[in-house]
TrEMBL record:
Belongs to the AHA1 family. SUPFAM superfamilies: Bet v1-like, Winged helix' DNA-binding domain. It comes from Thermocatellispora tengchongensis. Keywords: DNA-binding. This is Uncharacterized protein YndB with AHSA1/START domain/DNA-binding transcriptional ArsR family regulator. InterPro entries: ArsR-like_HTH, ASHA1/2-like_C, HTH_ArsR_DNA-bd_dom, START-like_dom_sf, WH-like_DNA-bd_sf, WH_DNA-bd_sf. GO terms for molecular function: DNA binding; DNA-binding transcription factor activity. Residues 1-98 form the HTH arsR-type domain. Gene3D superfamilies: 3.30.530.20, Winged helix-like DNA-binding domain superfamily/Winged helix DNA-binding domain (1.10.10.10). The keyword Glycoprotein does not apply.
Length: 254
């Protein structure tokens, strides 16, 4: 097809010829050397370029010189620029989507990290585990965040709306008070309370849910502490609860 710049640049051999002529006019031999195709093929490719007006031939004596006619490629260049703009907008959209997805993933990860879930199993009855979490005498044996700490005080008003208060004392005699208000009391399977730690302590105002289930003499206890402000608070409370539950393990297995 005459004057078809797209056909002119459709073949890699012709594109290499155009690239060489981009450096300036050259003889046919200079433009077509080392292309790895036969002379009839060279003749065919040159004919297509000339018919499209992309290449202009000038004969001087027995020498045939070729020159590039950039104006013949304007339509192709315009189309390519238009397509490039479209693709760039598409890639921008993809990048924005990926960025949003990454942000969503980060948000989801943060959301997941702001809830602590710990599960332990015991060879004890569900009633015994429920008592361990609600009987002040038993609570004083284990509810402290360290193996050498102690629970100085434990108060329990076991009813929905009732108050829970635990005072832990570390090895230096420093006391830490945690309080809660019960939201769920279902013996022996469920407890729930709103957690209030020391002023400024991570997790103040968050929620604790305890699920207790017994099967074949083994009782599973799942503690979920949710609504924490960030993953730092979650990590801090996971460590604290882990130490407390390590103490509970020793009390229950005695």
């Amino acid at each position: 097809m005459v004057n078809d710049p797209f056909r002119a640049v459709a073949h890699p051999i012709r594109r290499r010829m155009i690239e060489r002529l981009g450096n300036g006019p050259a003889t046919v031999g200079e433009v077509t050397s080392d292309l790895g195709v036969s002379k009839p093929a060279i003749t065919k490719h040159l004919k297509i370029l000339e018919e499209a007006g992309v290449v202009v031939r000038r004969v001087v004596g027995r020498t045939h010189r070729l020159a590039l006619n950039p104006a013949a490629l304007i339509d192709a260049v315009t189309w390519v620029d238009h397509q490039r703009a479209l693709w760039e907008r598409m890639f921008d959209t993809v990048e924005e989507h990926l960025a949003d997805k990454e942000q969503t993933t980060m948000t989801d990860t943060t959301t997941r990290s702001t809830a602590v879930r710990i599960e332990r199993t015991y060879r004890a009855s569900a009633d015994a585990l429920f008592d361990a979490w609600t009987n002040p005498e038993v609570i004083r044996k284990w509810w402290h965040a360290g193996p050498d700490w102690e629970t100085a005080e434990a108060e329990v008003d076991l009813r929905v709306g009732g108050r829970l208060r635990v005072v832990m004392r570390d090895t230096d005699g420093i006391e830490y008070t945690a309080t809660g208000v019960y939201t769920v009391v279902e013996r022996p399977s469920r407890l729930g309370w709103i957690w209030h730690g020391e002023e400024g302590e991570a997790g103040t105002g968050s929620r604790c849910d305890l699920e207790i289930s017994e099967q074949d003499g083994v009782t599973a206890v799942v503690l979920t502490h949710s609504g924490l402000p960030d993953h730092h608070a979650a990590a801090e409370l996971r460590e604290g609860w882990g130490l407390c539950l390590d103490n509970l393990d020793k009390v229950i297995t005695r």
